[in-house]
Design goal:
By secondary structure, this protein is an alpha/beta fold. The protein has four helices and eight strands. Helix 3 packs antiparallel against helix 4.
Length: 166
């Protein structure tokens, strides 16, 4: 079952599919991306092209955002359905492992404007940062809710989520 973010209104929506990945390294840290323009943390990922395989899409999008080559592990672990500003997006989240961090992100001009930077951090540290930051845009608030849900789903699956669970 997917977590629903936002609500459907009486408008025409553009349908979009997207992928995100929880990437772990040898230290069992995960990579998160900070968007300076908007003050929020997110998972690496992006849109799926028409008829594109999820593995191809997520591995491409992760290298764009982080410079990391990765490999997808297993099936989709969580999904979200998002309704915002005429966009209806379904996001699929996967686990992945780091192969190499090349240190050379391939950010497009749209991502450079957002001031994206990635960091490797413990799962608990990522959850703390994602919860603590207060996004300054509507997009940032949606991304925070979506990606915090996805990281918490990962932590539950790994039996690493402490405290009350939804």
């Amino acid at each position: 079952m997917a977590k629903v973010i936002g609500f459907k209104e009486n408008v025409d929506y553009i349908d979009r599919r997207a992928v995100r990945m929880i990437v772990t390294n040898q230290k069992e840290e995960i990579v998160i991306v900070f968007a300076q323009n908007g003050n929020y943390y997110k998972l690496p990922g992006g849109g799926i092209d028409d008829d594109e395989d999820h593995r191809v899409a997520v591995e491409r999008e992760v290298i764009k955002a982080t410079s990391c080559t990765v490999t997808m592990e297993g099936e989709c672990m969580a999904t979200t359905e998002e309704w915002m500003d005429g966009l209806h997006q379904t996001t699929y989240c996967y686990r992945g492992r780091l192969i190499e961090d090349t240190g050379m992100p391939q950010l497009g001009s749209d991502r450079m404007v957002d001031g994206l930077m990635h960091e490797w951090i413990s799962l608990d540290g990522a959850l703390d940062k994602m919860k603590a930051h207060q996004p300054t845009s509507q997009l940032g608030r949606f991304v925070k809710e979506r990606d915090l849900y996805l990281v918490e789903a990962y932590a539950r699956a790994e039996n690493r989520l402490l405290g009350p669970q939804p």
